[in-house]
Amino acid sequence: MTSTDQLALLDTVLAKAKAAGADAADAVIGSSISLSLGERLGAKEKLERAESQDMGLRVFVGHRQAIVSTSDFTKSSLEELTARAVAMAKAVPEDPFCGLAEPAQLARNWPKLDLCDTTEPSEAMLTDLVRAAEDAARSVKGVTNSEGAEAGYGRSDVAIAASNGFQGAYASSHFGLSVSVLAGEGTGMERDYDYSSTVYLADLDDPVKLGRSAGERAVRRLNPRKAKTAVVPVVFDPRISNSFVGHLVGAINGASIARGTSFLKDFLDKDVFAAGIDIVDDPHRQRGLRSRPFDGEGLPTTPAKLIDNGRLTMWLLDCRSARQLGLVSNGHASRGTSSPPSPAPSNLHMAAGKISRDKLIGEIKQGLYVTEMIGSGVNGVTGDYSRGAAGFWIENGELAYPVSEVTLAGNLKDIFKAITPADDLVFKYGTNAPTLRIDGMTLAGA
To answer: Which of 3, 73, 292, 303 has the most CB atoms in a 10 Å sphere around its CB?
Structure first.
């Protein structure tokens, strides 16, 4: 079904909803195709292909709303869908904050973001990728076993229409490649991995380099030691440093702010990070993994600094959370077919700092370089932070030996203020950050 066909179908559904008694309505169609393939030790373990399409309809009767979804697009099914949605809306409690965006808020044009690669890979193409990656990983001296390699492709088409006059559609693609291997023998085995995720097939990391990286990471982790409990500087590898950006956006989600359940609820327009720290949400990045031309309610999307020179500048808002807070949505609504819109970020990154990674580590006499985090012990209400970690002990500015089974603890309010970013930012994930040093974290070890 083309985007034109999708929008025409949505118009028909909206008209049926209005005829059934809805005061207003919006609807979304999502269709997807995916192909994934996995091999282990050169033998195929997984080959899956899936295709789906769903429609979600949200109707409003006064200040009441209801949402229904279906994968059956026949005329009789859609008539039943609209009638059921209106009947449900009439029966639920009122929500004074629900409703569509005002027509003046809507996006009328949007940028082209180069989000869809028309290449659909064959099984043979994915097989070549996973074999090259796993073979390269297993060729690293010290690697003794493999958890396998996987490659995948997906395409998603989204169309949104609403009775306030909005209509929009776009398509996006996704390619991924990952490999995980083990080094050592018996109880002394260690595991590590690497992966690449892109919008275009041509932008995937070279599978041989990816595999070697995974193998070398696993071997470096052999024979880990225990670290003693201490308060030390901790450096986070870019593979996991982005988690701190994720903790920030969770705390500035408008829904959490409206409920009063965020440790940053009183910090708007205040310093949250140290001076010089910028964190950017950029929905318009070309070929960005989370780019979007408009948001889930048809509002325009705009690049913005969430943190500007250490200061928190905004909440992430959809229409409902904005109304709760007496504000205006800033185009961060995200939605699926079976749930109402809710605030969510797009492409996030913390800007690079002015110090090299080597110098960031070189200034540390005793500390920890973290390459893996375990668990999710973060309290979004208080900001308390406690997570398992593994990595390498730093002695006199050098990575000395692998360390495992330690716990890092603190409070995110203090952690954010203590962050120093290196200058090695690379855009590889949906959320990106350079190497980060956090001074004065509590390390619980032996």
So the answer is: 292
Q: Which two tokens stand for residue 240?
A: 């996991």
Tell me if residue 256 falls in helix, strand or coil: helix
Q: Are 41 and 146 in contact (CB under 8 A)?
A: yes
pLDDT digits (tens, 9 = 90+) for 239-282: 999 999 999 999 999 999 999 999 999 999 999 999 999 999 99
Contacts of 359 (CB under 8 A, 6+ apart): none
Going by the DSSP 8-state scheme, the letter that residue 205 receives in this structure is P
**Separation between Cα atoms, residue 350 and residue 431, nearest integer Å:** 8
pLDDT at 376 over 90: no
Count of Cβ atoms closer than 10 Å to residue 225 Cβ: 14
CA-CA distance, 434 to 351, in Å (whole number)?
Answer: 8
Kindly report the pTM of this predicted structure: 0.94
Q: In 3D, which of 434, 415, 414, 436 has the Cα closest to residue 426?
A: 434
Tens digits of residue pLDDT in 277-324: 999 999 999 999 999 999 999 999 999 999 999 999 999 999 999 999
Span 106-111, mean pLDDT?
Answer: 96
Beta strand 348-350 pairing with 431-432: parallel
Residue 44 amino acid letter = K
Q: Which residues of 322-341 are buried (b: 16+ CB within 10 A; e: fewer)?
A: bbbbeeebbbbbbbbbeebb
pLDDT tens for 175-224 read 999 999 999 998 899 999 999 999 999 999 999 999 999 999 999 999 99
| Structural domains in the chain, sorted by start | 3-218 (3.30.2290.10), 224-446 (no CATH)
Helix or strand (DSSP H, E) at 90: helix 75-91
DSSP codes of every residue in 287-348: T-TT--SB-TTSPBP--EEEEETTEE---B--HHHHHHTT----S-EE--SSS--EE---SE
Query: What span, in angstroms and rounded, lies between the C-alpha atoms of 387 and 370?
Result: 11
Mean pLDDT over 128-154 rounds to: 98
Amino acid (one-letter) located at 3: S
Tokens of 334: 């995200």
Q: Is the pLDDT of residue 413 over 80?
A: yes
Question: 421 φ, ψ to 5°?
Answer: -90, 145
